[in-house]
């Protein structure tokens, strides 16, 4: 049985004080919120990771980074490696986000290197894929998704569901307020699961979580979670507000049964 992931991608937002306030409020909320099936993940900027880990040390909240280097160490100014993330016990790391692909030229080959490094250090990758508006409008969504999957998993013969989750994030839905309909999202999630089954096997395909991302918020998360192949959300804007993050946790818990 797959878990439901409510993962907040804060991007380049919040101060240290705001991070502390948010996490303390989430810890309080968790005193009366029990659900073993829901994985709560918060991905603050690098600079607050250690503080976030410290605050959440005895809680169910997992902390994720938003990127990492594909290198171990050395002369790579401005970079942070997977072993450094491991050092402070970060559990997750987002890789291949469309903003990194678009603004920092990241490609599937690089994303694979990052995934392998994270895996080596026991950190779970949240691997993002998704098509642009042009690609969708020209009818190429499935082809683009397939090429991204083929690139990221090229030469990888076996996969373990505890080393990564996938996040389908249609680029046109990120930060635009325009969400894919549950039907549009489910169709792509199903395509991804079928691809995993064909490349690997049914057991892997059934156990790998596939999150949806792109303007997920309290008003649409219920419908998205009701789709059979959607295992949670990678949430940007709506994860910055503690009340809306808590609302999404409550809805996820209700949709669990
Ligand atoms: P959004 O961002 O929820 O603000 O659309 C999602 C993401 O970029 O991961």
Question: Can you describe this structure?
Answer:
The protein has one domain (4-255): TIM Barrel (Alpha-Beta Barrel). Strand 3 (62-65), helix 3 and strand 4 form a beta-alpha-beta unit. It starts with a strand and ends with a helix. The model has no long low-confidence stretch (mean pLDDT 96). With 257 residues, the chain is of the alpha/beta class. An eight-stranded parallel β-barrel has the order 1-2-3-4-5-6-7-8, surrounded by five helices. It contains eleven helices and eight strands. It binds 2-phosphoglycolic acid (PGA). 2-phosphoglycolic acid binds at residues 9, 169, 174-175, 213-216, 234-238.
Summarize the structure.
The protein has 257 residues and is of the alpha/beta class. The protein has helices spanning 16-30, 49-56, 82-87, 98-104, 108-120, 133-137, 141-152, 182-199, 202-207, 221-225, 242-254; strands at residues 4-9, 38-43, 62-65, 92-95, 124-129, 164-168, 210-213, 232-235. Helix 1 packs parallel to helix 2 (49-56) and helix 7 (141-152) crosses helix 8.
Ions, cofactors and other bound molecules: 2-phosphoglycolic acid
Number of strands: 8
In the CATH scheme, the class would be Alpha Beta
- The main sheet orders its strands as 1-2-3-4-5-6-7-8
Fourth-tier CATH superfamily name: Aldolase class I
Low-confidence stretches are none
Q: In CATH terms, what is the architecture?
A: Alpha-Beta Barrel
Number of helices: 11
Q: What is the approximate shape? A: globular
- CATH fold title: TIM Barrel
Strand proportion: 15-25%
Please tell me how large the radius of gyration is: 17 Å
Q: State the distance separating the first and last CA atoms.
A: 12 Å
Name the helix and strand elements from N-terminus to C-terminus, one letter apiece.
Answer: EHEHEHEHHEHHEHHEHEH
* Estimated structural class: alpha/beta
Whole-number count of domains? 1
> What integer is the average pLDDT?
96
Biggest beta sheet summary:
8 strands, parallel, barrel
**Percentage of residues in helical conformation:** 40-55%
């Amino acid at each position: 049985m797959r878990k439901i992931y409510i993962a907040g991608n804060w991007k380049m937002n919040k101060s240290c004080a705001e991070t502390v306030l948010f996490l303390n409020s989430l810890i309080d909320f968790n005193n009366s919120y029990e659900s073993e099936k829901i994985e709560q993940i918060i991905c603050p900027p690098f600079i607050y990771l250690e503080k976030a880990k410290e605050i959440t040390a005895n809680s169910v909240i997992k902390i994720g980074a938003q990127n990492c280097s594909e290198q171990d160490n050395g002369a790579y100014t401005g970079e942070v490696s997977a072993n450094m993330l491991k050092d402070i016990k970060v559990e997750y790391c987002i890789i291949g986000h469309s903003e990194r692909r678009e603004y920092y030229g990241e490609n599937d080959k690089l994303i694979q290197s990052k995934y392998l490094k994270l895996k080596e250090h026991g950190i779970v990758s949240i691997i993002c894929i998704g098509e642009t508006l042009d690609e969708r409008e020209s009818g190429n969504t499935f082809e683009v998704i397939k090429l991204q999957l083929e690139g990221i998993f090229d030469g990888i013969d076996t996969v373990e569901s505890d080393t990564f989750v996938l996040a389908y994030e249609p680029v046109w839905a990120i930060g635009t307020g325009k969400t894919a309909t549950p039907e549009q999202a489910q169709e792509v999630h199903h395509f991804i699961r079928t691809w995993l089954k064909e490349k690997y096997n049914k057991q892997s395909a059934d156990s790998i979580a596939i999150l949806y991302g792109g303007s997920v918020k309290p008003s649409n998360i219920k419908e998205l979670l009701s789709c059979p192949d959607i295992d949670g959300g990678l949430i940007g804007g709506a994860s910055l507000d503690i009340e809306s993050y808590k609302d999404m946790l409550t809805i996820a818990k209700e949709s669990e049964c």
